Amino acid sequence: MLRWFLGCTLALSASLGLAAEPPAGFKAVFNGKDLSGWRGWAVHDKGGSPLDVAKLAPDAAKARFDAWNADAVKHWTVENGELVNDGSGAYLSTVEQFGDVEFLIDYKTVALGDSGIYMKGLPQIQIWDATEKSKFNLGADKGSGGLWNNSPGAKGKDPLVLADKPFGEWNSFRILQVGEYLTVSLNGKLVVDHARLENYYDRKQPMTKLGAVILQTHGKEIRWKNVYARAIPTAEANKLLAEKAGDGFTAVFDGKTFDGWQGAVADYEVKDGSIVCKPKRGGNLFTKDKYADFVAQVEFKLPPGGNNGLAIRYPGTGDPSISGFCEVQILDDGSPKYAKIDPRQRCGSVYGAIPAAAGYLREVGEWNTIQTTVQGTKVTVELNGFRITDGDTAAVKEFMRKEPHTGITAKEGFFGFAGHSDPVEFRNVRIKTLK
Predict the structure, then answer these.
(1) Do 280 and 408 fall into the same domain?
(2) Cα–Cα distance for residue pair 332/175, rounded to 1 Å
(3) Is the whole-model pTM more than 0.85?
(4) According to the 3-state scheme, what is the secondary structure of 9-67?
(5) CA-CA distance, 256 to 270, in Å (whole number)?
(6) Beta strands 268-271 and 171-178: pairing type?
(7) How many domains does one find in the chain?
(8) Are the C-beta atoms of 234 and 366 separated by less than 8 Å?
(9) Are 170 and 278 found together in one domain?
């Protein structure tokens, strides 16, 4: 009797054009009645990219969106709880900006349909007609759900399986986004497994920390419904980044002791499963094992204005940023005390050598995940899933510091923490060696 009642209730809601109840933990992004919470966005217009819009003064941005909204309402309607586009006009964007998010959305299109979902304003999770032979050379035969605007050969560009349903049936997306990484399921089948969505508008830069979800229109009718979002909390995001980092990692901190560590052990303490730099102390704490090429993944938590660093290929003496291959900066660079620092001092930078993109730290007091890959002279740093540093020390022409960088050619050394007298915390310290 209960199942019959729920079925009748859902059928009645649909007939009245009401949005279905969001799943537990989710909120409705589309109310099933009107375009509240949405606005037009012609990202294909000159100056319409998220990067361009971000540069506009508030009044200019409002004028731009007013024009796009005027166009959008000509082509987007709501029918029986469904968001409908006639195939033309401006795209439709959420007003809300999302960070780490789980996003659910259903769609139904027609033969020769071609559409997509932009996450944080970037193209795109592809939707198209998998039977359209004229687009097989573009990958249509592989089905929907891939990150089509990624570079050729990049992970996620093509879906793992063909999961589209026949025309006339509703398809369901489940999208997990942590940092720049997307995991996409279509109709219950995994089609993208933790692949980085490239910044289409500037592939050398990470995507923005927050951004809108945009629904594309591309010549044919498409319908959307059951649009829900759930913010992914920090602990869940960090866990996902650790799980998706892959196999081959070894924990180099047991969470209890300094076994396997050397150096300024007296300047640090183990507290609640974390390595903590003692206040007003802070020499260099480093592993007893040496590493050449490797990936290090670490969680860290900063106090206000906190400063530390990751010592890379450290010889065991001296300043890691000089005597070692490099130091990867750990810093509350949003603190007013650091307002005038060199970009090569930002959190995640190769200290004094390669600048990091700014603005990807979590709030002070929250745990961050930093992943550093060192291969030969190349260093890549990801902070909370965003690739903020990607450079080659061999290409650096000018270092910030004037002292000779004696360790820059080091091919092997210890891994550690370069304390700076602040109670910065580290945990889940893992390293994977690379051949």
Answers:
(1) yes
(2) 31
(3) yes
(4) HHHHHHHCCCCCCCCCCCEECCCCCCCCCEEEECCCCCCCCHHHHHCCCHHHHHHHHHH
(5) 6
(6) unpaired
(7) 2
(8) yes
(9) no
